[in-house]
Predict the structure.
Amino acid sequence: MKKRLLLLSFAALSVFAAKAQDTTKTDPPLVISGSVDTYYKYDFSKHSNIPTSFASDQNSISIGMIDLALKKKVGKASFVGELSFGPRGQVQSLPNAAGAYDESANSFHIQNLYVSYDVTDKFNLTGGYMATFMGYEVISPAGNFNYSTSYLFTNGPFQNPGFKATYAFSSKVSLMAGIFNDSWNLYTSVNKVNTFGAQLMVSPVAGWTAYLNVLSGKLSGTEFDLTTSYQITDMFKLGLNAADFKPAAVVGTGGFTGVALYPQVAVAKDVTLGLRGEYFKTKSGSYATVGPPPGSSVFATTFTANIKAGPLTLMPEFRLDSNKNDTDGFSTSSGNATKTASQFVLAAVYAF
Amino acid sequence: MKKVFGLLVLIMTVQHAFAQKDSLQVDENNNYVYYKVVEKANLPADTVYERAFNFAKTLSKENKPAKGQADKAFNISSKFITYGGMSLVRKESGEVKYTLNFQAADGKYRYNLSNFVFIPYKRDRYGNMTAVPGVEVAVEKFAAKYSQKEKDAVLDQIAAQSLAIEARLKQAIDRTKVPVKQIEVKKVNTGNW
């Protein structure tokens, strides 16, 4: 009897405590968010052809990563620490402690680690190891519509350690400027902290945001980037990413340029269909991209469905990439050079 | 057994007490509204209006209260953050924009909170929960986008916020002070041991 009473009392208290958390008076003490993703990929040439950042394993049920972000804010000061484990959260998106993409050596597993301070309601200072502000797509699968990634994403920066200041002129215009380490994606600078970065955000009308980005340094090279999206109706959203990159003289010559269009339409409460059409051109020179060789190009079309069941999203995806030349890197199942490659992916992403 | 039954009743009472969305009503256009008429015989309407107007200035940093078409009436738009998830994964789920309409008259005043619009939040690349651009859902159209559980959670928080604004507005008009609980520090003689 006592046990029953104790259990019931506990249940009553639990209900009370759980409901009490739904008030809006206080900030959550520590915010935990993240995602878990897993996928199956089949390339129709029976070996991996398309150089997407993630979803790399052919004919395999494979894991992406478990991504865990912690955020705490007290008054005007906050921190974010984001850890990731698994291929997507380690060797595919992060360097190891020695600065190499080598999963045999130890990793810090850090995607984001920064501190931030709101000097005023409109002016913020942030410093540490941060996800890049460049580009449309991100490392977290919960932040992307397509599971495989674009060439622009794969060839752009992933992280930029540095110090940045952001001023919001209004909810429609803000400007960020910062100084970052001399090389992208490394936990430490090679030698100097001399890469300049800036971002102008404008929101001309409700639902339309555009980011004009620049990142330029003597070692990192110079990239200009436009990332914009417009929720045109309740059902239809259009995104666009365009970028141009020129490597630093000490690294090489050439670079890349490209544009990707992201139309998405919600066909039901829990189902959205989306297309990504990307044109990626490599400039003539010595700089090698993840993609076609210098002086060539690729057109990639990716069709993805997002089917939601609460926090779980199923992502069936079909992708067809077409290179300019037969010799640009794709091969058939028999090993002959070919212009085209295609793959099917079924991914599951759980966000929390 | 009676005790067990009593506790079950207690649990149900607690649950019912926290179903705050029941405080909301729907108006003649089937829109959610929190509407109150309050008798205030001991204060002139001008004073009630002025105090409510000054209170309204504290509701929003972006917007100021605007005088309404009717006499001694104003309205202001503001917003508040909603939270979702339980326990360790509880975090900002979105924000709700609303409008407060107020009118004072001789011996009474009335107000309503309405035009509730939900803007969902999503985690950005830096690990912060931020508004999804361009997505705004009137709570009346929630069923087309969200589950019943999600709808109830947001409506509960709209009701809780409405109740909180009601209490603060009443306090501002009545000019009552929040009682400060004095915590007495116990004295101890450290010489005795």
Q: What stands out?
A: Chain A touches chain B through 51 residues (CB under 8 Å). Residues 10-25 of chain A have pLDDT under 50 and may be disordered. The two ends of chain A are 39 Å apart (CA to CA).
